[in-house]
Amino acid sequence: MFSNISQKVMWRLRRLANLPVLLRFRAHNRNVFGAGSNRGGDAPIMLMELNTMHSAHIAYAYLADEMAKSRGAQIKAYAPRALKGIKQKLSFRLKALLGWAHFGTYKSFGANEFLEINLTGDQRERARLLYEETLPRLQSTRDVEDMHIKGVWIGDLVYDTYLMSQLKPTINPAGEDFKQFLLESLELYTFWDDYLNEHNVCGVNVSHCVYNLAIPLRLAVYRDIPAFQANVTHVYRLSRDNLFAYNDFFHFRERFAELPEDVREAGLALAQRRIQRRFSGEVGVDMAYSTKSAYVAPKHSRLLRASDKKKILIATHCFFDSPHSYGKNIFPDFYEWLEFLGKMTECTDYDWYVKTHPDFLPGTKEIIDSFVARYPKFTLLPADASHHQIIAEGINFALTSYGTIAFEYAALGIPVINASMNNPHIAYDFNLHPPDPDTYRSMLLDLDKLDFHIDTRQVYEYYFMRHIYNTEDIFFEDYEKFIQDIGGYNAQFTYLAYKKWLAEWTPNRHEKIVSALHSFVASGKFRMDYTFYGQEFSVVSLGDK
C-alpha cells in the first residue's frame, strides 16, 4: 500500500517537474504553427492519431500545419482505440476539455477536437452482422491473414494486433478469445468506415502501418485519401502500392545505381566500416533501439557438435511483435514457420540449432522450449551466444524470416535463406529468397545442390542504402546525437524530446523543414528524403559517426 502511494507521489512530482518544458513547447508551437486552429465547420479534416510519442509530436506539428495551409484543413486528433469503462471516457473528455498532458500539445499545433471511438447501437449491429458473415470464411490462419472487408485488406492488422494484445504466438480461428477480438476489430472498422463516408477527410496520419492502429489508414488509402505515417525520423505517404512504411528497400539497387560514382564508392567503404563496428561488439551502430550485441567475444565452451553433418542455425523472431511489419511472409506467423522447420528436422540429417535474439521479449523463451521438447533435433543455444563463436565452430546455413542476421552472416560469408519475399534484403542476391513453402522445403532438402555465391559488395551496398543513405536526420540535424544527448532511445518518448527540440530549434532550420515537407506532400512520393531539402547526399559531410 505504502509502495503504491509512494509511486503515485513520485509520478506526480515528475509531472510537475516536466510542466515548464511542456508549457514552453506548447507556447513555441502556438507561435510558429496553428494555421488550422480556428477552422471548423465545413473545412476538410486532417485526422491525427493521438498518442504519447513525444518525439513524434514534432513531426505531427509540421505535418498538421502543412495540411492546414495547403488543404485548408482543420485538425482533429483521435483516440486510436475504443475507450472502455466510464473512468477512461471521463478521463479522456476532461483532458480534452482542459488540454492536459498530450492533449494540450495537440491543441498547440491546431487540433480543435478530440474524437472518441464510440459506436452507436446501429454501428454495433452492423459490425455484428459483418462478423457473422466473415467468421465462417476464417478456417485457417492464412484465411485470417488474407481477410478483406469490402475490398479493404485488414487481415494482417487484425492478426498482429491479436498476437501482441493476447501475447499469443499464433491464432486459433475457432477460439472464443479470437472470435471476441475479431468482433471488436470489425466494430473499429465499422466506426472508421462510417466516419470517412460521412466527413470530408483530406488526410490521415498514424503512428504505425501495422496493428489495428492502421485501420483508418487502410480505409483512407483505399479511398485515395492522403495517408501518412510520420515520426521524428521518417515521413511516409502510403498508397495501394505501398501499404507499409520502410519498404523502400525494394528499390535500393536502382537508386544506388543513380548516385555519382564517387558517392557510391565512398558509401561502400563507409558501410564496411560501420558493419565492422557491429562485428566488434559495439552496441547501437545504426540501431539506436538496440541494447545488446550478439557479436561479442566467445563466452561459452563449445556450442556446436563436432560432426560432419550440415549445421543449420535458426535465428528466431519475437512471436508477438508484428510478423507482418513488411507485408506477407511465406508463413502467416513465426510460430508456423518454426513448426514447419521442426517437421523439416524429422526428414533431414542435419544438426539444427535455435537461437533467440539477446533482447527477446518475456514469453518467447517458454515457447521456444516447447518446440525443443517436441522436436528433439532442435538444440537451443544460449541467447547470449556469440555469432563469432557459432561461425568459427562451423555453422553452414542460417535461417530467418527477415532479420538483420541476413546481411550480417552474408558479410561473414555464411549463406542465409529468408522466409519472406517482403524482407529488407530482397533487392539483392547475397541471400536466398524462396517465394513459397514448397520452394523453401526443396531448398532445405537439397542444400548441397544450391549454387550460391555471396558478393560482399552487395552487402555493403544494401547496408549503405538502408542505414546511411536512408537518413533519419529529417527533423533533428543529427538524430543519433539527439538520442545520445537525452539518454537513450526510449527517452525520446518523454518530455526530454521537447526540451532538446526547443534547445536546437532555429528559424532557419524551421523554414527548411516547412519547405521540404511542403514539397514532399505535394509530390505524392513514398518517402521524404534529402532531395526535398534541395541537397544531394554527401558521404563526406556525413562523416563516420
The helix fraction, in percent, is 40-55%
Give the end-to-end Cα distance, rounded to a whole number of Å: 48 Å
As laid out across the biggest beta sheet, the strand order is 3-2-1-6-7-8
Average pLDDT taken over every residue: 92
User: DSSP strand (E) fraction?
Assistant: 5-15%
Stretches where pLDDT falls below 50 for ≥5 residues?
none
Main sheet overview: 6 strands, mixed
Radius of gyration: 25 Å
Count of individual helical segments? 21
In one word, what is the shape?
A: globular
What structural class should be given to the helix and strand makeup? alpha/beta
Q: How many strand units?
A: 13
Description of the structure:
The protein has 545 residues and is of the alpha/beta class. Helix content is 47%, strand content 10%. It has 21 helices and 13 strands. Strands 3-2-1-6-7-8 form a 6-stranded mixed β-sheet, sandwiched between helices. Strands 11-10-9-12-13 form a 5-stranded parallel β-sheet, with helices on both faces. β12, α15 (405-411) and β13 form a beta-alpha-beta unit. The protein is globular and about 75 Å long. The mean pLDDT is 92.
Comma- or semicolon-separated keywords:
about 45% helix; about 550 residues; 21 helices; alpha/beta; globular; 5-stranded parallel β-sheet; 13 strands
In short:
This protein is an alpha/beta fold and 545 residues long. It has helices spanning 2-32, 54-71, 85-98, 101-108, 121-134, 141-145, 155-166, 176-198, 215-221, 252-257, 261-279, 334-345, 364-374, 387-392, 405-411, 437-445, 456-469, 479-486, 496-504, 507-523, 539-542; strands at 45-49, 74-78, 111-115, 148-149, 152-153, 201-206, 227-230, 235-238, 311-315, 351-355, 378-380, 397-400, 416-418.
